[in-house]
Predict the 3D structure of the following.
Amino acid sequence: MGTYILKRLLLMIPTLFFILLINFVVVQVAPGGPVEQAIQQAENFQGSKDRSGAETVTPDSHYRGARGLSAEMVDKIRAQYGFDRPAYERFWLMLKGYLSFDFGTSFFKDKPVTQLLWEKMPVTVSLGLWSTLLIYLVSIPLGIRKARQHGMLFDRSTSLLLAVGYAVPTFVFGVLLIVFFAGGSYFQWFPLQGLVSDGFHDLSLMGKIRDYAWHMALPLVTMLLGGFAALTWLTKYSFMEEMSRQYVLAARARGLTERQVMYRHVFRNAMLIVIAGLPEALVGIFLAGNLFIEIIFNLDGLGLLGFEAIQQRDYPVIFGTLFLFTLLGLILRLISDVMYQWVDPRINFESRGAK
């Protein structure tokens, strides 16, 4: 197992490298970069001066964004964002900084990317952990009951609910909740956006807790509706598999009640595989679910930060969030594999040639 873990850790290095390389190449050819945006802003500012009577300066230039700016001004803008260097040099400097977790400085927020990530991380972490806890609290009891009543009315009726929860995208639930309960068209019971109210710091301790829960209600319900189906099915079939084993039949033959069999014998063994899947569940919640929830409810976390960076072509922030999410995903998936082998020693990734 130690050899497998070492291989996976070593494979993270080229994986991160090629992901960063591919995205670096893509953003170099994408139109509307930070240089073009800065030039456009300068041209708009110059245009407003022209309309007020100032003299227009329009020198000839080969650069397509420089029709209303001098060549010297364009060169200054390119140097400001580091685009006066060749692409390979910029990529090499970026990699050298990443070795020390120096992701550079945001083009538009005028802060180091590391500081921005650190400031936004509490929102993303709190949303991810609370939603994971809520999903497990709902999915495990529901999955156990479905396993005990397999094929009965309760199992069939809840399967329809699970199918809807699994098929409908998470952001659709978020939009529907906003429309119905956040002042969209019907009720205004919950705030439309943000994690806390404006006067949050002036509230008492209980007031802060109530205000935080009030703002988190709709995002957490959205995460629950979009994420509990898969875990419920996993719980159900894990328990059904354990209930068919010989030791369960022996426990029933000794006269134990169904409840005693379930919670003294089956529960411990069936829950191992569910717990082992926790890191993989966190990957989906943090890297996919949080992104849409933070955008829809305007929660100032890593997902919203990355979305705004893409809109602004803020390359240091884009690469910083991409690197952090990729690294987190690789580590969590490695932990998930290790836990699966710990739960079931028959699983041997090395003998199967897993990478």
Q: What stands out?
A: The longest helix spans residues 205-243.
